[in-house]
């Protein structure tokens, strides 16, 4: 169970590294294809806001990856759970305020990781 939870942590971290790249470096190019519901004329004026959002996604990815290098198993799980909960909350909030797709892409993998860690702890 723990191995699967750690694999999910890596997947969620990689997703957030992709979000970082998309929002910080490809907002006016590739992001236009990903965020089709966003008005085309707003990409350039919101470039700085998107970059800021991308930076936060990078912090989430860094925290998730950091958790994998913590030697103490309890602290490793606690730190991973903290960052997974942050991602899950962001996914739920995004689904409520922007697009239901965010829950699937961002929220569900984080919730799966949380469930796997909790199963490991309590089974």
TrEMBL record:
Keywords: Membrane, Transmembrane, Transmembrane helix. InterPro entries: DUF1304. The chain crosses the membrane at residues 6-28, 75-96, 103-122. This is Membrane protein. Pfam families: DUF1304 (PF06993). The keyword Zinc-finger does not apply.
């Amino acid at each position: 169970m723990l191995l699967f939870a750690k694999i999910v942590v890596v997947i969620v971290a990689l997703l957030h590294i992709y979000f970082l790249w998309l929002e910080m470096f490809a907002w006016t190019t590739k992001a236009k294809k990903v965020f089709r519901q966003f008005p085309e004329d707003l990409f350039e004026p919101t470039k700085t806001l998107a970059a800021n959002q991308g930076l936060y996604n990078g912090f989430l990815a860094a925290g998730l990856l950091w958790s994998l290098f913590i030697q103490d198993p309890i602290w490793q799980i606690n730190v991973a759970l903290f960052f997974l909960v942050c991602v899950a909350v962001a996914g739920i909030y995004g689904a409520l305020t922007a697009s239901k797709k965010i829950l699937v892409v961002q929220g569900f993998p984080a919730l799966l990781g949380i469930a796997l860690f909790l199963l490991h702890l309590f089974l």
